Amino acid sequence: MKIILCICFSAKNSLYHKKILSNLNEINTPPGCKLSFYLITNDNFKILKNLVSTIVKNFKLEIKIFKTAKKDIPSTRNVFLKVIKNKKIDYIGFFDDDCKIKKNWVFDMVTFIKKNDCQIVGGPQLHETRIHKYKSFYQFMEPKYTHKQKVNWIATNNCFFKKEIINETNLKFDEELKNIGGSDQLFFTKLKKAQYEIMWNEKAKVIEYYQKNRENFKWFIMRNFRYGYSGLIIDQKIFGNIIGNIINLMKIVYLIIIGLLEIIQIFKSYNIIKSLFYFSRAIGRIFSITKFKMKKYC
Known about the structure:
The protein is about 45% helix and about 15% strand. By secondary structure, it is of the alpha/beta class.
């Protein structure tokens, strides 16, 4: 069995790269498995190469580094898909370059996908925080799935799937979403629409390292705004412009109603914060109708 996992390295997350590479030393390789990590970088190739040679001591792993001039996330992921296109591989997967994975993650994913009738598996992302209230903010944004639940899409921060899917569909990450995010949601939603089964493995967790710049209310408001903004574009690409716009209007009304219900339930500060997050998503969907251009990923 051959597995290749991809981590896309970017300059903005360089603070975490030593931690991630150290984390690779802890990864357990299942019996009879050849495990490789392909590191795609749009930053300094030599620095990353030196870090790998200095830090990674897990000689059971094969590590290869690829340089790309493209700076956006979807394009970097597509470099990986192009590299592995003609390789004989059983499974592939993605992680973010600000996360660590549990040492038995690969074993948990392989076991799960073999025992369950599915081609694609996703898992939860936890978050390191210094201030407790932000943990609940992160939990608000994460999906509320149960173990073995069939889902419509997963994120590339924690995913594992059969490589044959790439050959069968020739699907790529949509580079038009580079400034707003959501290319992974669109990617896996299209695969779900093409009748590939996606399931949730609650046991296979990844942990996002603490990020000081995110522990502020504005960041969470803007992230929820971006979720709403990208939502319309994803709906249009999946269902077409007319139906996509109708779905968008329905979701705007839904988000506003849910936001109002959060306020009137029990007058607690967290309910008000949750309502503001719902309102931010609704506003994002409204702004998306106006074709307002987001200049950078937030």
